[in-house]
Structure formats: C-alpha cells, structure tokens
Amino acid sequence: MGEGLFRDKKILVMGLGRFGGGVDVVKFACSAGARVIVTDLAKQDALAESISQLKDLDVEYHLGSHEGGDFEQADMVVANPAVPLDNKFLQITRKAGRKVTSQIELFFELCPAKIIGITGANGKSTTTSLTAHLLRSRFGKKVWLGGNIGNEPMLTIVGKIKPDDLVVLELSSFQIEQLAQSDKAPQVALLTNLTPNHLDRYKTFENYCKAKELIFQHQKPDANQPAVSIFNGDDEVSSKWFAKYQKDAGRVCVKFSADGVPTKIRSEYVLPGRAYLANLAGAIAVAKRFDVTDEQIIGCLPSFKALPHRLQFVGEARGVRWYNDSKATTPDSSIVALEAFDSPIIIAGGYDKHIPFDEFGAKIAQKAKAAILIGQTAEVIGKIIQNHPQNKAQVKYAKTLAEAVQTANTFAAKGDAVLLSPACASYDMFDNYEQRGEQFIDLVNKVIR
Q1: Fold (CATH) for 3-105
Q2: Which of 3.90.190.20, 2.70.98.10, 3.40.50.980, 3.40.1620.10 would CATH assign to domain 312-448?
C-alpha cells in the first residue's frame, strides 16, 4: 500500500524526532519504493535511537540543519506534527510547486475503514483507549487503536486494516491542523474538553481552540451516513460547539456528561475521580453509535486499566499509595489528579510552556497536604501556593526527582496518596514525560521495598 504515492519519488521527511516520530514515515516510504532523505535540526548523536531503527534501510541523512535546496527538489515533504504550518522551509516547498503532507494525512488517505477521532486538552488518551476497549467488546480484533499511547504507528498498521474495520485515533491539535490542510477529518469526532495548552505555539487560548475546532469544521457525511460530532456537556467550550453544530445538515450531534453514566456501569469502573468518569461517558457515547450494549460495556470494564503515566497506580507501602501521572503536562490535567484524592502530596513542576498556574496553585493550597516542586516552574508555583489566603499545604523544593520522591516519603503517612502530577512538560530535566514517569516508578519501587 502506498506504492502509487511514493515509488521512485524523492521523499523528504522533515523531523525524524529523538523518539521515532518520523521513523514510521521513513519505513513506510522505503517499503513503497521511495528514495528517502531525512532532515532534522538535531545532530546524529541526539537522534541515535531513531536512526538505529532504520539501520537496514537505504536512507540519506541531512542532520544539524535544514537546507532550502532539499525542500525545493523533493517530490514530497512529510512534516512532523511539531513543525508549524507556516514554517519557512515548508513555504519553500509550496512555492516550488511540491507537495507538503504529514503522517496523519497519509494515513487518512490510505485507510479504508471508518475513523473515530478523539481530541481534547485532557483525557484524550484514556478516552481513546477506553473507546477502543468498549468497541472491541462487540467487534473484537476489527478495532484498531492509534495515537500517543504506545501502540503500533499508524502507517505500520494501515496495510492490515480492512474496509469494515473501525479505527480509533487520538488526535492532537497539531495533527488536526495538518488534516485540515487537505480538508480531512474523521467521520466520528469527539472532544473531551478544552483548557489552555501549547500556548508556546498558539500564544492564546482562542487560537488553540480554533485549531481544535477544525476537526468538526472539516467533517463530512460518508456513504449516505451523517458525520457524528460528540461533545462534553460538562465543558464550557464543548457545550458551545454542541449548540453551534447541531444545526448543521448532514451531521448528528451528541452530548455526554459524567453524570449520565448509569450506576450499573459506574460500579464496574475502577479509575478514580470525576474526570475519569467523563472519559467513560465519552467512550460510551461513541460505543452506543455502534450498537454496543450496556451488558457488553459492563462485561469488559473490569479488564480496563489506567494507561502508563496517566494516574497510574505504582504501589503501596506503609499504607501510602503512589501514583504516576507524568502525562499531566498542563495545570488543568494536574487539577484533575488532585481532585481524585483527599489531601494528597503532589510532586509538580517542570518545563515552562507559558501557561498560567494561578488556578493550579490555588487548588494545591486548598487541597494538598504538601507540594514538592521541581524544575523551571517550581518557584512560580510555590509562590502562588504560599500566597494563597487559605493555604494549608507545606511547600518544599527539590533539585532532582529523586530528591522529590525522598522528600515526599518523609511527609507521607498511612492513608496518604503521593502523586507525580507535574502540570508541566518535562524538557527541562528529561527527554520526555515517559522518561520522567519511568524514573519516578523506579524511585518509588526503591522506596516501597
């Protein structure tokens, strides 16, 4: 699959990524008979892990910088989602009359099955995985799962997908923007919620919302079936969009709420807190569009576990429970974690994405027993907590995650929960949130032995 797109073409992959973001595209293009060039601003040492996955392929590497000539001469440029659409090198490609595309656009072009796309600021990974889990209770192996969830890359699986299968995809705002460039969107789309994120790229919350809304703006009916747009009734922006889009012809709008989950289903759900209940409500809303029954949902729920790094239970010792929520890279996602527990101890802080911490700091001050703060944002968060008039949380600073875990352990008593829920990206101290979470798990395991 893809031979017609790539055979004997010069394909420039822009952004290999330190963790394999472009590896999927390179493998796919090579298998389809293309001549592949990789260009990345990072140097070879930084990309060693990704390059090692391509060692048996005939790939040309242009690393450490981008050269305009590569972008003028390529038949097609496949851009990493992290590359802004207005990047100057992509503009060179367009001016030369060459095609600019992306991994997600290629997948949508090649995938023969119906695609269910799930996006949002918080909870989209859990909602995506849970949706696939519920659908599999009815359709079994005919349901495919894709996204930032540790599963097989999308282009790797596209050749295995049959027309009557279902594909459930987690979609970021960056990917949605890329899809919009080719007027594509999933026929079934769900929004979990919208709170400020990626303001280092979008500058304003309004711009971020505009990027997310493209997933609904580009939906179209398919084979005499309407597009399906699913919204969280508990979220302000999502509710406004429900009211806006339910007037469209050729579209069915559905609204879900955490309060709408039936008691008989809720009792079988093991993940804590209202936010996780909202994830379940969204997944049920999708499942019901495909005639999954309550009995099938109840039967499969006990086997669903929290995803790694998303309020993941690590272990318990001395009556203290430890949770890894390293994927919480925004204040709002960490607030969700705080609200799932009574008086927790939180480890927070990290790379600054220029998102305000006022609400997060206030929630810690009112809710937490203690806050152990790390990274670039530690002092900013700490000041907000300590200046809150109702502050009851002790604030401590740690230079490393290891020091933070040890400090948290000294505060923890029987009945407490300790959360790594940083509210920030990881790039000031770690390669990514996975590395941060895995180090936390290792440190906790040493503490609780």
Answers
A1: Rossmann fold (3.40.50)
A2: 3.90.190.20
* Contact call for residues 380 and 357 (beta carbons, < 8 A): yes
Q: What is the pLDDT of residues 160-187, one digit of tens each?
A: 999 999 999 999 999 999 999 999 999 9
Structure tokens at 214: 């493209």
pLDDT mean across residues, the chain: 93
- Those residues of the chain that have pLDDT short of 70 are 1-3, 18-21, 149-152
236 C-beta neighbours (distance < 10 Å), count: 11
The predicted pLDDT at position 311 comes to 87
pLDDT digits (tens, 9 = 90+) for 305-337: 878 898 898 999 999 999 999 999 999 889 989
Strands 417-420 and 320-324: parallel
- Do 46 and 69 contact (CB within 8 A), yes or no? no
Q: Please give the order of strands across the beta sheet that includes 320-324.
A: 312-317, 320-324, 417-420, 345-348, 370-373, 394-397
pLDDT value of position 151: 66
DSSP annotation of 351 reads: B
Confidence (pLDDT) at 448: 87
Ranges assigned E (strand) in 192-239? 227-232
Report which DSSP code applies to 130: H
Distance separating alpha carbons of residues 310 and 323, to the nearest angstrom? 9
Rounded Cα gap, residues 131 and 139, in angstroms: 12
Task: List the beta bridge partners of residue 321.
Answer: 316, 417
Chain segment 96-130, per-residue pLDDT in tens:
999 999 999 999 999 999 999 999 988 898 999 99
The C-alpha atoms of residue 427 and residue 436 are separated, in whole angstroms, by 10
Beta bridge partner(s), residue 167:
115, 144
Give the whole-angstrom CA distance, residue 408 versus residue 413: 10
Return residue ranges of the chain for CATH 3.90.190.20.
312-448
- What's the confidence (pLDDT) of residue 349? 97
Residue 368 CA to residue 43 CA, distance in Å, equals 43
Residues of the chain with CATH 3.40.1190.10: 111-303
Q: Which fold has domain 111-303?
A: UDP-N-acetylmuramoyl-L-alanine:D-glutamate ligase (3.40.1190)
Identify the residue whose tokens are 């001016």: 95
Give the pLDDT score at 353.
Answer: 85
Q: How far apart are CA 408 and CA 404, in angstroms?
A: 6
